[in-house]
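Bumping with the actual sequence this time:
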Amino acid sequence: MYKLKGVFIVFLFMFFTSGCWDYYELNDMSIVTAIGIDLTENGYLITLQVANPSQIAGGESGNGGDEAATVTYEKEGRTIGEAIGNLMFQTPRIPYLGHKQILLVGDEAAKDGFYNILDYFMAHTQTKKIFPVVIVRNGKANDAIKILEPLEKNTALNIKGMLETTAINNSMISNRKLDEVLICLFTEGRHPSVSSIEITNITEKGEKTENISTSDPESMLIIRGSAVFIKDKVVGYLSDIDSLGHSIARGTVNTINITFPCDDKENFGTAIISRVKRKHETIIEKKEVKGKVNVKGDVAIVEYNCKLNIENPENIKKVEKQINKEIENIVSNTIKTLQEDLKSDIVGFGEYIYRYMYKDWKKYKDNWDEVFSKMDIEPKSEVKITSVASTKKVIKDVKNDGKEE
């Protein structure tokens, strides 16, 4: 009797602990590499970029080289989930979202609000939460996701590669992941910002393999500054140089490439600033709110086209002043744009009050954007030159007259 009970219990556990009820064969699934979301009159237009299996397999059919690396499917729905569900009628395989590389959001959808978008992806059990979010500047995600380029035929990998390269080399973007956007939306005193891209010369040819078979593609995608939010809605965009100023003020960079004027004759120098350290604070004095941004780092001069001998220690000090002045101008212009044009604190001056002066934050939280737009913010740069180019003399001047200052 006890043996029969034991066998029954074992079979019962086997029945309830089966873990393969939602199992799908890999051959039955389409690997989604990118998702595009656009706003329509009735809801959303969802565009999925799916990896072409024959291209992944190396073109076993023998003609894989003539095929696109990806296929796109698009469908409308009243909700994001309904639109993706409607795509099932178009694709022979079940779309799998777990390997997507990027989320593209059209300009109108971004300005309408992000809460519905975040709700879907945070609730979806199949999808990971750590992937870049990019706004299509003044355009549609549906158009951007279809652009094919020669060096990387997969649009998702192309955009992701551009984001990573730009972030490493010149720090001009806010390369935010979905989870970071969500965290920022629930952070007191700071609005989110994410990277934005732009489509150059939208043509039908840009969506065809003809665009990747030429050295001069008609349509291309370009990283273009950052999208600025107030709460969950995009309210405008920063230029490339203003995005750099935001990255410096926010302290999200380790290395900066900067070009600076070195005389009044339109000559310039270029420097790489490494080990960048930034400190910002918000000060309340006699009910007046002020902000400070201090920047420090090590400078390597890689190009200097002015008639100044940078072997001379005194001249090194002059060049340091030129670089510090340029950094201060960049940060100051960025803050001016945020205060006057966008009225959005994406740097975190309000967050500083929330963290360190919470009693004061209670007074300002309801109208912080207005307070931020009027506060006096002083940027201060104190970077130091630690190395110069291997050629310290300007060759064109030495060749012409050999005269240097």
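The tokens above came from a reply further down the thread. The first helix runs from residue 2 to 16.
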